[in-house]
Amino acid sequence: MKFLGLVIVCLTGGLLLYGTMDLPDWGDPASPASTHLSDYYIEHIVEETQVPNLVTAVLADYRGYDTMFETAVVFCAGLACFLLLRDFRPGKNRYYRHIPTGVMLHFKNPETRMIPGNEFEHMDKDWVPSDIIIKTVCRILIPFIQIYALYVVAHGDFSPGGGFQGGVIFGSSLILMAISYNLKTLLKRVTEKFLSIFAATGVLIYVGLGVLAVIMGGQFLDYGMLAPLVPWDPGHVRALGMLGVEIGVGIAVMAVMVIIYVNIVSEGRHDEGL
Amino acid sequence: MNELLALIVAKYNFWLYIILMMIGLYAMIAKNNLMKKLVGMNIFQTAIILFYVSIGYKHGATLPIIQGGHGTHDAVIHAADYINPLPHVLMLTAIVVSVATFGVAMALCVKIYQRYQTLEEDELRIRLSEK
């Protein structure tokens, strides 16, 4: 099987390499990909949409439907992870950690409970103490990563940036918190309910802006129709519409990244896991 | 021979991506472990993404962000000055969607492991026929 696979791969690779003879040279400005539609985009985008960032303009305006359903795909992926893995059975054994000394207590009877507070916290069997250096560095870095993520989202329409990228950066800062501390610390700050609501809200903002344009008398996702709602800046209403859509995308992507991570590392039990 | 060399130099991006793609394809065909297959699929996807981004590149062009576009400006925009934004848009969404689908694939792997205690394909086949 391995030898057969190698033969097939070599054959396919050889045919593809033979096929490159007909492809345009690297960086050729006259290649078919950059002579038809992209020229129109580059030359007309600023007058048509007032957005200097061409990538965002094509993403959220010319191909708005496409991006809307990409966001829906991301949302569905988060939902699929949740439905496949989430385990609602209560754990039989309970573990508590005495915070000042670090001693773990194991309760075999599920009836006996302790109230977690300043002295004891609820823990899991797989819990390992995290390193003080890693903890401190992450504690300093995470707020800056999050500020940077918000900066990237806010620059979606006027300079490099956008909702997908900013959302991933924000989500990864939360994942970093779970890795450097533990999963319980993360889930205390961003609960499962919060994440689910945010993932749905992101998609809702996107679709809602499209429906709002329909209500205002335009076509779906025609941001120019939102002008009466933004009285202060009529010239840039399309740019503001795209910014709103990017914020929605960012929220959805951020929440879905964390949902996928949390469910996979703990096999849906939402305890320590990895 | 010199012609072949000139061909490779003119289109070296495609050659590199096809080699990368074939590494991913080989992993998907020949590896037994489902996780390794997934990693192969990710390599394949990355090669496709690099391929598309390289199509958008133009010599002597800059990022697809119009200079002085924020606010009023009357300067004529030349298409040759900016790289092609379209492949970037497509790949921007493709990257995020590939991460999301990879997450779903890993969730399925976790489920398979929980039920059959293995991710090796031949062992899985034996356990499936046992039931």
Automatic annotation (TrEMBL), chain A:
<feature type="domain" description="Na+/H+ antiporter MnhB subunit-related protein">
    <location>
        <begin position="133"/>
        <end position="258"/>
    </location>
</feature>
<feature type="transmembrane region" description="Helical">
    <location>
        <begin position="195"/>
        <end position="220"/>
    </location>
</feature>
<feature type="transmembrane region" description="Helical">
    <location>
        <begin position="67"/>
        <end position="85"/>
    </location>
</feature>
<feature type="domain" description="MrpA C-terminal/MbhE">
    <location>
        <begin position="32"/>
        <end position="93"/>
    </location>
</feature>
<protein>
    <submittedName>
        <fullName>Multicomponent Na+/H+ antiporter subunit B</fullName>
    </submittedName>
</protein>
<keyword id="KW-1003">Cell membrane</keyword>
<dbReference type="InterPro" id="IPR007182">
    <property type="entry name" value="MnhB"/>
</dbReference>
<keyword id="KW-0472">Membrane</keyword>
<dbReference type="InterPro" id="IPR046806">
    <property type="entry name" value="MrpA_C/MbhE"/>
</dbReference>
<keyword id="KW-0812">Transmembrane</keyword>
<keyword id="KW-1133">Transmembrane helix</keyword>
<dbReference type="Pfam" id="PF04039">
    <property type="entry name" value="MnhB"/>
</dbReference>
<feature type="transmembrane region" description="Helical">
    <location>
        <begin position="132"/>
        <end position="151"/>
    </location>
</feature>
<dbReference type="InterPro" id="IPR050622">
    <property type="entry name" value="CPA3_antiporter_subunitB"/>
</dbReference>
<feature type="transmembrane region" description="Helical">
    <location>
        <begin position="163"/>
        <end position="183"/>
    </location>
</feature>
<dbReference type="GO" id="GO:0005886">
    <property type="term" value="C:plasma membrane"/>
</dbReference>
<dbReference type="Pfam" id="PF20501">
    <property type="entry name" value="MbhE"/>
</dbReference>
<feature type="transmembrane region" description="Helical">
    <location>
        <begin position="240"/>
        <end position="264"/>
    </location>
</feature>
<comment type="similarity">
    <text>Belongs to the CPA3 antiporters (TC 2.A.63) subunit B family.</text>
</comment>
Automatic annotation (TrEMBL), chain B:
<feature type="transmembrane region" description="Helical">
    <location>
        <begin position="12"/>
        <end position="29"/>
    </location>
</feature>
<comment type="similarity">
    <text>Belongs to the CPA3 antiporters (TC 2.A.63) subunit C family.</text>
</comment>
<keyword id="KW-0472">Membrane</keyword>
<protein>
    <submittedName>
        <fullName>Multicomponent Na+/H+ antiporter subunit C</fullName>
    </submittedName>
</protein>
<feature type="transmembrane region" description="Helical">
    <location>
        <begin position="89"/>
        <end position="110"/>
    </location>
</feature>
<keyword id="KW-0812">Transmembrane</keyword>
<dbReference type="Pfam" id="PF00420">
    <property type="entry name" value="Oxidored_q2"/>
</dbReference>
<dbReference type="GO" id="GO:0016020">
    <property type="term" value="C:membrane"/>
</dbReference>
<dbReference type="InterPro" id="IPR039428">
    <property type="entry name" value="NUOK/Mnh_C1-like"/>
</dbReference>
<keyword id="KW-1133">Transmembrane helix</keyword>
<dbReference type="InterPro" id="IPR050601">
    <property type="entry name" value="CPA3_antiporter_subunitC"/>
</dbReference>
<feature type="transmembrane region" description="Helical">
    <location>
        <begin position="38"/>
        <end position="57"/>
    </location>
</feature>
